[in-house]
């Protein structure tokens, strides 16, 4: 095949090199003619990607390319996901039917019957747990499937929606406990975008989801997924810093300077701030916004330390080493602090997801492509049941000040920057309890999950409904996959469910093999030693194992380009989310050591000066001369 090479001039560095244009789905190079066809059909953005030649000694690229040297485009955005179980659909790729051939029960009906609605505080976890879980979800996902029905196709419940294949609104049953008193009979929703729907692959093949994030955990909520966005919106090109602004004495990511912004709910004239960051997460759901601000600041703090210790390092070296440290900090917190609290540390050690040893760890397998499973984000949706519907705000002495429905903060970054709200929200993140892990959903998420953006939205109905459009096999097939035993009749579920919940399923579904994956997750018992349902545990662990073994740049590896020394890794191991908040959170002088867990006698507040952090002297470069010149080897990171 004739391969199309274009001459490339790197965005700022005037370096030219050859670039190959690839098909995002098949990972094969495409011809000039094929590229022209994509341009004509307006599919170039989704269906093609540009690959700059790989250098095996180069660090992690922002666009995810060259992670796997055999399959260099895998690991980039818009590349296919893997499936734990093959999909099942009805004809025309509509959701599967019940075994008897009837339609499955309506998603909203199932949600209202299987999940209670209400709010009780959890005794163990804080809201910070949700914020960081959300940040990590955003790292490997994208928002377009939500934006699609909120902004671009708000009409699915109207006559126009009937003729648009993308429209898949959720019908509200006539006897709905909430809406039988309203005139709302339908909630807007669209089908997830797929390689088929955006025109990369023929329509007569089963839909495979397409997303814009890279599938590795690479802090893309901060740095973005493309070098272009990072250069335009992120890098300051000075001292390794990310661009920043100071407003009200606080440091913020840069803001949009034009009238056009996505912060539609900003209450003008007071609320004006809207971030102009490489990725949308910075202005999305409140928890992500907050975490993006923290980690944005953290990057600048890290590179400032590195520059002080190594005055001979140039902007590039400071930026990329700083980024590598921030990615490692995020993953160290997620793998060794957050997930052990949720999944059970011993479970994770036994399943090989984490090590009880502080040294290097190398599970890399070049035969595994860096990918996420289609099932992984879907089971993360279970965490909507532990999300508190309001954001509570406290002062630094711990006095409760006010609260606001969290959904009213979506696309409303301006709220953070007025009246010291970011200080109060930051205090709230480690003082407010999460919602209890109790088979119930906060009505804010269950009835008005998009706040003023959509009159009624049950996020959990969407969770179940969307999963049907991904063609997931029945819940029991996932149980069999996870537990390695068969489940033939409803009573067999007693292994993972309380009898009264099995009864609920039996009343609604005709057959055990009809039960939806999401419905099963909602009412499953928790894994022994952890706080998440058995199947959520299984699918999360499967993903994290895949991630650790397929990411060539995984921070715990000794044999990766620009790898940490053992001394540096041991410094990274000292980090905690409490230390991060002490360093970059507003007005944080005291915090509990394990900030994902509530303050209490075994986890008391302590001064930030008592909380261990990273000693950046581990990054001291002995080849830096006193005169500021550098005598060491070149740093291997291209701006690609
Ligand atoms: C515990 C914290 C949370 C986690 C882990 C979480 C995770 C997720 C995940 C994984 C998705 C699916 C995204 C996709 O497949 O592309 C999702 C969808 C969504 N989440 Fe959350 N979320 C959390 C909290 C929230 C909060 C606080 C809100 C706002 C009030 C929210 C609103 C939504 C909405 C509107 C959707 C789109 C629903 C749809 O697919 O139509 N989430 N969330």
TrEMBL record:
Domain of life according to the entry: Eukaryota
PANTHER family: OXIDASE/PEROXIDASE (PTHR11475), PEROXIDASE (PTHR11475:SF86)
UniProt keyword list: Heme, Iron, Metal-binding, Oxidoreductase, Peroxidase
Gene Ontology BP annotations: response to oxidative stress
Residues given in the record as heme b binding sites: 384
Alphabetical list of PROSITE patterns matching this protein: PEROXIDASE_3
Cited InterPro entries: Haem_peroxidase_animal (IPR019791), Haem_peroxidase_sf (IPR010255), Haem_peroxidase_sf_animal (IPR037120)
Keyword match Iron: yes
The protein, known as: Peroxidase
Species, as recorded: Parnassius mnemosyne
GO MF term list: heme binding; metal ion binding; peroxidase activity
